[in-house]
Design brief:
The chain is an alpha/beta fold. The chain contains 20 helices and 22 strands. Strands 1, 2, 3, 4, 5, 6, 7, 8, 11 and 12 form a ten-stranded mixed beta sheet that branches. Strand 9 and strand 10 form a beta hairpin. The longest helix has 18 residues. The radius of gyration is 27 Å and the shape is globular.
């Protein structure tokens, strides 16, 4: 888990006026506090939106960023201030792109011009103010404005191809990205290529899973705002199904906050912590941005669940819950809820692992063992490793059970490690009997791990490859073994089918605190089983979402098969 480099508590102190000297370090944040006001004429307040403070501080350091968001979360206001600051105080050319030119005209007339007239610091930088020669502030030009001594503001519609051939800029904001003509918007980087300070920011409410802004978010750092549980201190993003609601056996949805669900007079509904399972109050203290893939292009997700209650809306979670319940049975209305409140597109469930399944698999289980030790000698431990930027690892204990496979897999440890040497350390610490590693893309490193244990003889390590296989014979999920090379080949679809069935049936468990592992619940839920129209075959698609832990669990299941074929359950016989 990687916390942000900006200390949020220190930034909150800045907002409260306790660190005024820092305005020179974060000028956009200083401008928001001292000069700007919103369209209602109110000063900017971060009291209910503390997640904005680091973003204001970071804007000058990011060359490119995308924001996948729910409406009214403060991001558009931030980007408006960004272009005004860059043009008016840094003498840069800034372009603001909206889907259509008519939309752009309305935006300038209704949202920007009032700021240029009513905010003294802005008015002074419009021709006619301190730096200009005109006697009055001009509001007539809705496409281009001089701003500051040498800066300019351009307002473009994505549906006008000529606009994207004629301008050059330093800073570009593409708003309502999912509604834009992406063929024209794709030329934006050409327009900033000659700038010594190129910056491109993309923002939108997501509309379609895996496309538009949702795709940009998935391909980027996938940063989310992590709140801090006021009981155990665990930091976590607020996920609607993981933290706020649960589905009962009869299909009804209920708040996870049992106490306030039955006694509304006690106050707003609270999220329930993934670690300690207690309801906690959403507060700014200790919250921070956490990036799942920190070395990629910055991308941020902002939902209305991240907005804290305030005097204007003291019980927002109850209102969201009421909207969610009213939307049940109405697909269109439910999609509006997902976009409007959660800031994410609604995906049809299809056949997939759900949060309810994960909750059941983690219920009443021990917490993760982070150390291993000799207590695992004489027990049967297996491991699955999915290889990517990080190595995603699943370690389980095999327990005899009345299941189709004869075993139940009980999770012992889940997590990520940076190097194959760390995998070796885990194998030795937990006395792992069988380990299956993704053969790609780090084939050389995986082979080195395999060869080490071929020589040691303490663990069966196999490299795994996916290959389609017809459902012929009795071999599980089309499995074939090359004993000499220690390579196993399996059918991806059949394997993911099998692991879904095991989790659904309760034959696979996870540590009680598995939900605290960064990315675990999202990645387990990412793949969906759908019918491929071209091949007329069911396949699992992740839609561009990360799914490393889902495959680590699948390799863990293959390790069970490797162990069984290498001598069976002799440890506890």
């Amino acid at each position: 888990m990687q916390a942000t480099p900006i200390d949020t508590e220190r930034a909150l102190a800045l907002h409260a006026g306790m660190c005024g000297s820092m305005h020179t370090r974060f000028p956009l944040l200083g401008m928001a506090r001292a000069m700007h006001h919103n369209r209602r004429g109110q000063p900017i307040s971060f009291a209910d939106k503390p997640y904005l403070i680091p973003l204001y501080a970071w804007m000058d350091t990011m060359q490119e960023a995308s924001f996948c968001k729910a409406p009214q979360t403060g991001i558009s206001e931030l980007l408006i201030q960004k272009i005004l600051h860059d043009a008016g105080w840094k003498d840069r050319i800034c372009a603001y792109v909206l889907p259509q030119y008519k939309t752009s005209e309305r935006f300038v007339d209704e949202r920007l011009n009032p700021l240029l007239v009513e905010v003294p610091a802005y008015a002074a930088r419009v021709p006619g103010g301190e730096y200009g020669t005109e006697s009055t502030i001009s509001k007539g030009n809705l496409k281009r404005k001089r701003f500051g001594p040498m800066g300019s503001l351009l307002f473009l519609g994505s549906n006008t191809p000529s606009d994207f051939l004629e301008f050059s800029a330093d800073t570009v904001v593409v708003d309502e990205y999912d509604e834009c003509d992406l063929q024209n918007v794709g030329k934006v980087w050409d327009r900033v290529r000659e700038s010594p300070f190129p910056q491109v920011f993309t923002v939108s409410n997501p509309q379609t899973p895996g496309l538009g802004i949702h795709r940009l978010f998935r391909e980027g750092t996938r940063a989310r705002w992590f709140h801090r549980c006021t009981h155990c201190g665990e930091r976590q993003p607020i996920d609607w199904e993981s933290n706020v609601v649960r589905r009962l056996d009869d299909g009804r949805w209920m708040p996870r906050d049992d106490e306030r669900a039955t006694t509304p007079t006690l106050g707003d509904l609270r999220p329930v912590c993934r670690r300690c399972r207690r309801p906690w109050d959403r507060v700014a203290d200790g919250a921070c941005w956490v990036a799942e893939e920190p070395y990629r292009t910055p991308s941020f997700h902002i939902s209305r669940l991240d907005i804290l209650a305030d005097r204007r809306e003291p019980q927002p979670m109850r209102r969201y819950y009421a909207e969610f319940i009213k939307a049940q049975g109405d697909g269109a209305r439910l999609s509006v809820f997902y976009v409007g409140v959660l800031g994410q597109p609604r995906e049809d469930a299809g056949s997939k692992i759900t949060q309810d399944m994960l909750d059941a698999a983690m219920a009443e289980r021990p917490a993760m063992d982070h150390h291993g030790g000799d207590q695992y000698k004489g027990r049967t431990l297996i491991m699955g490793v999915d290889v990517g930027t990080l190595l995603h690892v699943s370690i389980s204990e095999l327990v005899k059970a009345d299941t189709p496979s004869g075993y139940r897999r009980e999770g012992v440890w889940l997590g990520t490690v940076p190097q194959f040497e760390d995998v070796r350390r885990l194998i030795d610490a937990f006395h792992v009997d069988a380990c299956v590693v993704d053969a790609m893309p780090e084939t050389r490193k995986a082979k080195e791990l395999r060869d080490h244990y071929v020589n040691e003889g303490t663990c069966e390590v196999y490299l795994c490859r996916y290959h389609p296989s017809p459902r012929v014979g009795t071999d599980a999920f089309g499995l074939t073994l090359d004993y000499e090379e220690h390579v196993v080949t399996v059918d991806r679809t059949q394997l993911l089918d099998a692991t879904l069935d095991e989790i659904r049936a309760g034959h696979r468990t996870f540590p009680s605190d598995a939900g605290t592992v960064l990315g675990f619940t999202d990645q387990m839920r990412a793949p969906v089983r759908v019918l491929d129209e071209k091949s007329q075959r069911f396949v699992w698609k992740e839609g561009g979402e990360a799914d490393h832990f889902r495959h680590a669990d699948a390799y863990d299941r293959v390790a069970q098969e490797i162990f069984d074929r290498s001598g069976g359950y002799y440890d506890l016989a």
